[in-house]
Please model this.
Amino acid sequence: MQIEHSVRLLDRSTPPHILTLTTLAGIGALSMSIFLPSLGAMSDHFGVDYGVMQLAVSGYLFATAAIQLIAGPLSDRFGRRPVTMVALLLFIVATLGTLIAPNITVFMICRLLQAAVATCLAMSRAVVRDLYPPHQAASRLGYVTMGMSIIPMIGPMVGGALQEVAGWQSVFVFLLIAGLAATVLTWRDMGETISGKGLTLREQISGYPELMRSVRFWGYVACTAFSSGAYYALLGGASFVAGTVFELSPMWAGIGLGAPASGYLVGNFLSGRYSVRLGINRMALIGSMVSTVGLGTSLIVTLLGVSDPLIFFGFCMFLGLGNGMTMPNATAGSLSVRPQLAGTASGLGGAIMIVGGSVMAVIAGAALDPAWREIPLQIIMLSSSALSVLALLVVIRRDRRLSDDLPR
Model:
């Protein structure tokens, strides 16, 4: 379905405003990153080791993947709006629970329940696909994720400032306020984007084989998983490289980690500007090649004996730039395979991307060795990015075969 009339903020009779979609896509990222500077203080408060407190990160990621698997099919059946509203309300209740949790067990349960907000990211993607054809959907997703990409840059800074001024609880108070604001905005602005009553469970199940057998769907999903996997690998190894290899202070390490996010912002803008003109496959391929070439050059420079934090993190900007072009377009492609199951495809694709990224982060953490400095991390990032190029080439080849099979 494509909606022709203009978009008006706080009017549910028109398509959701880009501010609403960006808010939905971004609140999950905010919940993921804003409390990271408080992990030490939180472990002291609950009297547990830092490693135990880190389960609030890894556990949240896996809960996010599981919830997206459930939320997608539910939204195809009951609609995007009710599923989104329920997820936001669960997030608010869970966030309140983290503030009053008497011990680490209750806190962790509430933290896992906070992952319900991951539904909002899947719904923002599905809503865009409900309203626009693939090329326009990629453009819209580019603008949505462009706004969302700012959050990983500013979230930890806001959390760190709140931690210093008022303690770790203030971070979750901020999340509670953000959740309430997002709920009000969504209630006022987001109407239902599925025509009719949605697909019944039986209708969804009948459509699954076509989706699951689609080479194009799995190619697009693999592309997003490997593209994001390179970034997750960076997250898994950046602290080691910054602190042990380059001996950077936490402040400068944080600035270095902001380099991919700044590149991602630019890449999202380019997607929003040019995806309609160039097409989703071409834009995604350009993006994945930009990431691969940038990471490959970084590795070559290091192997030539030049090891410097400016070079390492500077080339990571190409990773962000490439992913900013790849992710919206490959995501739009995966949702276009069977538009009636856009919610299911969004949830499944998002879950695979998160699990794949988490695996890459674990691999990166296990492979790092002071003797080899940053080289193992560069190899892992380059390999993951190169696999995203390969996955997209499979999609392009499949598209050409399907085109050749059409009557002329």
Q: What stands out?
A: Residues 18-400 form a domain with the Growth Hormone; Chain: A; fold (CATH 1.20.1250.20). The chain has a mean pLDDT of 82.
